[in-house]
Amino acid sequence: MKKPALSLLFFPLFMSAQTRQGAIVYERKIDVHRRLQDDQMKAMVPQFQTAAYEVLFRDSIAVYKAMPKDESPDPFENTGNGNHLVMRFTGPGDDGIVYRNYSSGQVLEEAHLQDRKYIISDTLRQQAWKLSDDTATVLGHLCKKATTTTPRGSKVTAWYTADIPVPVGPDQFSGLPGAILKADVGDGDIVFTAKEVQDKVETKDLKAPAGAKPISRADYAKKMDEVLGPPDAQGRRIIRN
Q1: Per-residue pLDDT reduced to its tens digit, 23-63
Q2: Which CATH class for the 18-228 domain?
Q3: Domain coordinates of the chain in residue numbers?
Q4: Taking the complete model, does pTM exceed 0.90, yes or no?
Q5: Fewer Cβ neighbours under 10 Å: the N or C end of the chain?
């Protein structure tokens, strides 16, 4: 009678250890039309833009980055009718890796501006999450609901799972008692959804970005404003040529 009891106690501990390292692949979906006031401009591009991101994690360290794009034509680089419309939405991981150390609170983000590389040095920002008992299932994982507000006033709804007991998530969102598998910013304005969770990936060499002198986030933001102009309500910049 004792052996089955011992095996039941051991099984959850084994599973918990296994899920403290791995990778999550996210899809980011942006409602582009919400950012455009001109109906003619809306007609030039699809309503939604999608991109893929990956977070590799091991215990207290995580690396977040954009995944390679496919080679199909980009509908957001429209050259028809003599007009040239280029729309780019920038954010964490779009221009290189974002390294986060949840134990030390260190954040190092790789970025490029005007053909120059920068390493943005920052600290983890504590997000005021409000936890809820509401549940949902994402990729077969039971998730609980948490909400917060961005510094720019947008509502964020996240769904996190205790099955993956690490505080990782997409974009700037993290710090919950489990990995975030879905995050909705601004009631559908930007939605991140996990499309794949992998536990059999190599995570031994999660390294901080190097090869450039660190710069503070405030100083880098000033450089971005000088080159690209101020960001929109979500902190994103749209480039039109």
Answers
A1: 999 999 998 887 777 777 777 778 888 999 999 999 899 99
A2: mainly beta
A3: 18-228
A4: no
A5: N
